[in-house]
Write a structure and sequence with these properties.
The protein has helices at 12-23, 39-43, 70-75, 78-87, 107-119, 170-177, 196-202, 235-241, 254-260, 264-268, and strands at 2-8, 28-31, 50-53, 92-94, 99-102, 123-125, 128-133, 138-142, 147-155, 192-193, 209-216, 219-227, 231-233, 251-253. The strands form 3 sheets. Strands 6-2-1-9-8-7 form a 6-stranded mixed sheet, with helices on one face. A 5-stranded antiparallel sheet has the order 10-13-12-11-14. Strands 3-5-4 form a 3-stranded antiparallel sheet, with helices on one face. Helices cover 30% and strands 26% of the residues. Strand 8 and strand 9 (147-155) form a beta hairpin. Helix 1 (12-23) runs parallel beside helix 5 (107-119).
Length: 269
Protein backbone atom coordinates (compact mmCIF):
# COMPACT_ATOMS: atom_id res chain seq x y z
CA UNK A 1 0.00 0.00 0.00
CA UNK A 2 1.43 3.34 -1.08
CA UNK A 3 0.58 6.73 0.43
CA UNK A 4 1.73 10.27 -0.14
CA UNK A 5 1.81 11.00 3.60
CA UNK A 6 1.70 8.74 6.67
CA UNK A 7 1.14 10.43 10.03
CA UNK A 8 2.08 8.48 13.17
CA UNK A 9 -0.10 9.71 16.04
CA UNK A 10 -3.77 10.71 16.07
CA UNK A 11 -3.54 13.43 18.67
CA UNK A 12 -4.40 17.07 18.07
CA UNK A 13 -1.25 17.76 16.02
CA UNK A 14 -1.42 14.56 13.99
CA UNK A 15 -5.11 14.89 13.12
CA UNK A 16 -4.89 18.54 12.10
CA UNK A 17 -1.76 17.85 10.05
CA UNK A 18 -3.48 14.94 8.28
CA UNK A 19 -6.58 17.02 7.54
CA UNK A 20 -4.53 19.86 6.04
CA UNK A 21 -2.43 17.44 3.96
CA UNK A 22 -5.60 15.73 2.72
CA UNK A 23 -7.13 19.05 1.66
CA UNK A 24 -3.98 19.70 -0.36
CA UNK A 25 -4.73 16.64 -2.44
CA UNK A 26 -2.41 14.20 -0.66
CA UNK A 27 -3.38 10.59 -0.03
CA UNK A 28 -3.01 10.40 3.76
CA UNK A 29 -3.02 7.61 6.35
CA UNK A 30 -2.97 8.17 10.15
CA UNK A 31 -1.60 5.46 12.46
CA UNK A 32 -2.59 5.39 16.15
CA UNK A 33 -1.91 2.85 18.92
CA UNK A 34 -4.61 4.05 21.35
CA UNK A 35 -8.14 2.64 21.22
CA UNK A 36 -9.51 5.98 20.05
CA UNK A 37 -8.01 9.12 18.50
CA UNK A 38 -7.61 12.32 20.50
CA UNK A 39 -7.52 10.72 23.95
CA UNK A 40 -5.55 13.58 25.54
CA UNK A 41 -7.95 16.09 24.02
CA UNK A 42 -10.82 14.34 25.79
CA UNK A 43 -9.32 14.92 29.25
CA UNK A 44 -7.87 18.39 28.65
CA UNK A 45 -9.31 21.40 30.43
CA UNK A 46 -11.19 19.24 32.92
CA UNK A 47 -13.08 17.61 30.05
CA UNK A 48 -13.95 20.92 28.36
CA UNK A 49 -10.74 21.29 26.30
CA UNK A 50 -8.81 24.55 26.70
CA UNK A 51 -8.31 24.53 22.94
CA UNK A 52 -6.31 27.77 22.50
CA UNK A 53 -5.38 31.11 24.03
CA UNK A 54 -6.10 34.52 22.54
CA UNK A 55 -2.61 35.73 23.49
CA UNK A 56 -0.60 32.77 22.15
CA UNK A 57 2.74 33.92 20.73
CA UNK A 58 6.34 32.67 20.48
CA UNK A 59 7.02 34.29 23.87
CA UNK A 60 4.95 31.57 25.58
CA UNK A 61 6.95 28.65 24.17
CA UNK A 62 9.95 27.08 25.89
CA UNK A 63 12.63 25.70 23.60
CA UNK A 64 16.40 25.39 23.30
CA UNK A 65 15.76 27.07 19.93
CA UNK A 66 13.43 30.00 20.67
CA UNK A 67 12.98 30.65 16.94
CA UNK A 68 11.64 27.15 16.27
CA UNK A 69 7.95 27.98 16.70
CA UNK A 70 7.89 31.38 14.99
CA UNK A 71 7.20 30.21 11.43
CA UNK A 72 4.49 27.75 12.52
CA UNK A 73 2.68 30.31 14.67
CA UNK A 74 2.83 32.94 11.94
CA UNK A 75 1.37 30.58 9.30
CA UNK A 76 -1.43 29.19 11.49
CA UNK A 77 -2.58 31.41 14.34
CA UNK A 78 -4.96 30.94 17.26
CA UNK A 79 -7.49 32.98 15.27
CA UNK A 80 -7.38 30.42 12.46
CA UNK A 81 -8.27 27.65 14.91
CA UNK A 82 -11.00 29.74 16.54
CA UNK A 83 -12.49 30.25 13.08
CA UNK A 84 -12.47 26.47 12.54
CA UNK A 85 -14.22 25.88 15.88
CA UNK A 86 -16.81 28.53 15.02
CA UNK A 87 -17.42 26.96 11.60
CA UNK A 88 -18.46 23.74 13.36
CA UNK A 89 -20.83 25.63 15.65
CA UNK A 90 -18.95 24.68 18.82
CA UNK A 91 -19.85 27.13 21.57
CA UNK A 92 -17.00 28.32 23.79
CA UNK A 93 -16.19 30.80 26.52
CA UNK A 94 -13.14 32.81 27.57
CA UNK A 95 -11.58 32.51 31.00
CA UNK A 96 -8.80 34.45 32.73
CA UNK A 97 -5.78 35.47 30.64
CA UNK A 98 -7.36 34.62 27.29
CA UNK A 99 -7.96 30.90 27.87
CA UNK A 100 -10.71 29.49 25.61
CA UNK A 101 -12.79 26.47 26.68
CA UNK A 102 -15.69 24.55 25.12
CA UNK A 103 -19.08 25.26 26.72
CA UNK A 104 -19.83 21.58 26.27
CA UNK A 105 -17.43 18.66 26.04
CA UNK A 106 -13.88 18.24 24.76
CA UNK A 107 -15.29 15.44 22.59
CA UNK A 108 -16.62 18.20 20.31
CA UNK A 109 -13.06 19.12 19.37
CA UNK A 110 -12.18 15.46 18.72
CA UNK A 111 -15.26 15.05 16.53
CA UNK A 112 -14.40 18.24 14.65
CA UNK A 113 -10.89 17.00 13.82
CA UNK A 114 -12.21 13.59 12.80
CA UNK A 115 -14.73 15.27 10.52
CA UNK A 116 -11.97 17.40 9.00
CA UNK A 117 -9.93 14.27 8.28
CA UNK A 118 -12.91 12.42 6.81
CA UNK A 119 -13.76 15.33 4.53
CA UNK A 120 -10.14 15.41 3.37
CA UNK A 121 -10.20 11.69 2.57
CA UNK A 122 -7.86 10.64 5.40
CA UNK A 123 -7.93 7.08 6.76
CA UNK A 124 -7.13 5.81 10.27
CA UNK A 125 -5.23 2.56 10.85
CA UNK A 126 -3.07 0.72 13.43
CA UNK A 127 0.27 0.37 15.26
CA UNK A 128 3.73 0.71 13.66
CA UNK A 129 6.26 -2.08 14.23
CA UNK A 130 9.24 -0.60 12.42
CA UNK A 131 10.25 2.16 10.00
CA UNK A 132 13.09 2.21 7.49
CA UNK A 133 14.33 4.60 4.83
CA UNK A 134 14.09 3.14 1.35
CA UNK A 135 14.30 4.45 -2.19
CA UNK A 136 12.50 6.57 -3.15
CA UNK A 137 10.62 7.00 0.14
CA UNK A 138 9.93 5.34 3.52
CA UNK A 139 8.71 1.82 4.36
CA UNK A 140 6.69 0.94 7.48
CA UNK A 141 5.47 -2.37 8.84
CA UNK A 142 2.32 -2.43 10.96
CA UNK A 143 1.50 -4.75 13.86
CA UNK A 144 -0.98 -6.43 11.49
CA UNK A 145 1.91 -7.40 9.22
CA UNK A 146 0.91 -4.97 6.47
CA UNK A 147 3.73 -3.16 4.67
CA UNK A 148 3.25 0.52 3.77
CA UNK A 149 5.26 2.89 1.63
CA UNK A 150 5.05 6.67 1.70
CA UNK A 151 6.78 9.70 0.26
CA UNK A 152 6.59 11.69 3.53
CA UNK A 153 6.37 10.56 7.15
CA UNK A 154 5.09 12.82 9.94
CA UNK A 155 5.94 11.73 13.50
CA UNK A 156 3.33 13.26 15.85
CA UNK A 157 3.56 10.76 18.68
CA UNK A 158 3.97 13.27 21.49
CA UNK A 159 5.91 12.42 24.64
CA UNK A 160 5.66 10.02 27.59
CA UNK A 161 3.30 12.17 29.66
CA UNK A 162 0.42 9.73 30.30
CA UNK A 163 1.48 6.07 29.77
CA UNK A 164 -1.94 4.80 30.88
CA UNK A 165 -3.41 6.48 27.81
CA UNK A 166 -0.93 4.85 25.45
CA UNK A 167 1.91 7.41 25.50
CA UNK A 168 5.29 5.81 24.75
CA UNK A 169 8.85 6.75 23.80
CA UNK A 170 8.35 5.54 20.22
CA UNK A 171 9.03 8.98 18.76
CA UNK A 172 12.32 9.28 20.66
CA UNK A 173 13.45 5.83 19.56
CA UNK A 174 12.57 6.58 15.96
CA UNK A 175 14.53 9.84 16.11
CA UNK A 176 17.59 8.01 17.45
CA UNK A 177 17.25 5.39 14.73
CA UNK A 178 17.63 8.10 12.09
CA UNK A 179 20.43 9.94 13.88
CA UNK A 180 18.36 12.86 15.19
CA UNK A 181 19.95 14.40 18.29
CA UNK A 182 17.70 14.38 21.36
CA UNK A 183 17.54 16.94 24.14
CA UNK A 184 16.89 15.90 27.72
CA UNK A 185 13.19 15.34 28.40
CA UNK A 186 11.53 16.09 31.72
CA UNK A 187 8.02 16.60 33.13
CA UNK A 188 6.39 19.96 32.40
CA UNK A 189 2.99 21.50 33.16
CA UNK A 190 2.57 19.04 36.03
CA UNK A 191 1.31 19.27 39.64
CA UNK A 192 3.72 19.17 42.57
CA UNK A 193 3.44 16.36 45.13
CA UNK A 194 4.39 16.38 48.81
CA UNK A 195 5.01 13.63 51.31
CA UNK A 196 5.39 13.16 55.05
CA UNK A 197 4.69 15.95 57.51
CA UNK A 198 4.12 18.70 54.93
CA UNK A 199 1.43 16.71 53.14
CA UNK A 200 -0.28 16.01 56.47
CA UNK A 201 -0.21 19.71 57.43
CA UNK A 202 -1.88 20.77 54.19
CA UNK A 203 -4.38 17.88 53.88
CA UNK A 204 -7.20 19.93 55.43
CA UNK A 205 -6.95 22.40 52.52
CA UNK A 206 -7.48 19.77 49.81
CA UNK A 207 -9.91 21.14 47.21
CA UNK A 208 -9.33 24.80 48.14
CA UNK A 209 -8.35 27.13 45.28
CA UNK A 210 -6.94 30.65 45.75
CA UNK A 211 -5.26 33.24 43.50
CA UNK A 212 -1.51 33.32 44.10
CA UNK A 213 1.81 34.62 42.83
CA UNK A 214 4.10 31.62 42.37
CA UNK A 215 7.77 32.24 41.62
CA UNK A 216 10.83 30.19 40.69
CA UNK A 217 13.97 32.24 40.15
CA UNK A 218 13.09 35.24 37.98
CA UNK A 219 9.91 33.67 36.56
CA UNK A 220 6.52 34.16 38.23
CA UNK A 221 2.85 33.54 37.47
CA UNK A 222 -0.20 35.25 38.98
CA UNK A 223 -2.91 32.61 38.60
CA UNK A 224 -4.99 30.16 40.61
CA UNK A 225 -3.36 27.72 43.02
CA UNK A 226 -5.17 24.53 44.02
CA UNK A 227 -4.50 22.38 47.10
CA UNK A 228 -4.92 18.68 46.31
CA UNK A 229 -4.81 15.44 48.30
CA UNK A 230 -1.25 14.94 47.02
CA UNK A 231 0.16 18.49 47.03
CA UNK A 232 -0.35 21.55 44.84
CA UNK A 233 -1.86 22.07 41.40
CA UNK A 234 -3.77 24.76 39.51
CA UNK A 235 -2.62 26.95 36.59
CA UNK A 236 0.08 28.80 38.57
CA UNK A 237 1.72 25.56 39.74
CA UNK A 238 1.42 23.83 36.36
CA UNK A 239 3.11 26.82 34.70
CA UNK A 240 5.96 27.12 37.19
CA UNK A 241 6.68 23.37 37.02
CA UNK A 242 8.11 23.89 33.53
CA UNK A 243 10.82 26.14 34.99
CA UNK A 244 11.58 24.33 38.26
CA UNK A 245 14.60 22.06 38.62
CA UNK A 246 15.46 19.68 41.46
CA UNK A 247 16.94 21.51 44.45
CA UNK A 248 15.53 24.92 43.45
CA UNK A 249 13.10 26.91 45.58
CA UNK A 250 9.50 27.66 44.64
CA UNK A 251 8.08 30.71 46.42
CA UNK A 252 4.36 31.32 46.96
CA UNK A 253 3.64 34.93 47.88
CA UNK A 254 1.19 34.80 50.86
CA UNK A 255 0.68 38.57 50.86
CA UNK A 256 -0.58 38.38 47.28
CA UNK A 257 -2.99 35.59 48.23
CA UNK A 258 -4.39 37.44 51.25
CA UNK A 259 -4.66 40.70 49.35
CA UNK A 260 -6.62 39.13 46.50
CA UNK A 261 -8.67 36.53 48.35
CA UNK A 262 -11.39 36.40 50.94
CA UNK A 263 -12.41 33.82 53.47
CA UNK A 264 -10.62 31.20 55.56
CA UNK A 265 -8.64 29.74 52.64
CA UNK A 266 -6.50 32.86 52.38
CA UNK A 267 -5.82 33.16 56.09
CA UNK A 268 -5.05 29.44 56.28
CA UNK A 269 -2.32 29.82 53.68
Amino acid sequence: MTWDVVVIGAGAAGMLCAAVAGRRGRKVLVLETAKAPGEKIRISGGGRCNFTNRHASPAQFLSANPHFCISALSRYTQNDFIALVDRYGIRWHEKTLGQLFCDGSAVQIVDMLLAEMKEAGVRLNAKVQYVEKTEPGITLQLSSGDILECSALVVATGGKSIPKMGATDFGYRLAEQFGVRLTQTRPALVPLTFDGELLEQLSALSGVAVPARVRCGKVSFDEALLFTHRGLSGPAILQISSYWREGEEIVIDPEFVVRDSTGPAASAL
